[in-house]
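Record passed on underneath.
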Amino acid sequence: MPPSPGPLAGLTVVELTSTFLGPYCAVLMAQMGARVVKVEPPAGDIIRGVGDERGSGLGPAFLNFNRGKESVVLDLTTPAGREALDLLVDEADVVLHNMRPRAAARLGIDAETVLARNPRVVHCAAVGFGSGGPYRDEPAYDDVVQGVSGLAAVQGGAGEPQYVRTQLVDKTVGVMALAAVLAALHERSVSGRGQAVEVPMFESMASFLLMEQQGGRVYAGRTGGTGYARTASPYRRPHRTADGVIAVLLYTDAHWRDFFRLVDRPD
């Protein structure tokens, strides 16, 4: 049998994003078979130059986050750029952007404007802070949200807060945005109506962390402290051996019994 073109084959995604979150969400859709049209401003995505030692405008991170996409440059501050975008929106199944609400509305890529033009489109705004909160128009990057969501504090443990050494927020929320888009596409297949979804970085990561870090605060009356003892343990780390480093997780009673047998300490 010939290989499958992917579960999203036949769908068109218009992507108006930069850096990591939006491009990661969109590249996952491209890998699932969607046609992804990446729209960049004349200056280009700001990560084009990251690690670009050859000066080609095609740095390694940019290539990894944007492979498998089509590319077009549009100046959305001009009538010609807006007209070209309208033509893309007309044939789109998904419109994805990561601009703050005020900027999105100014450029005409907010949900209200896009859905008025194409009532069947799934509009996804992957933003820093939820539109219902006081920080809706504040900028946000991975490091900022690692800090404000509590991730840096958890990572630092009892010491100073630390950032995770990868764009964990961008990539985690990118996957959350993908899930939201897929759910909205399913709803559209049932109702026939387009959908507007918002995936904010801060609120998404706060929820992500609180799943296990909320601790006793999950109960009425706050019966205990926050945190998860296992992840906070100083012994939770790779361990040096005579010929390298190993990762060990002893989680259940059965694990411990097996471990004691392995080290010849049944006592």
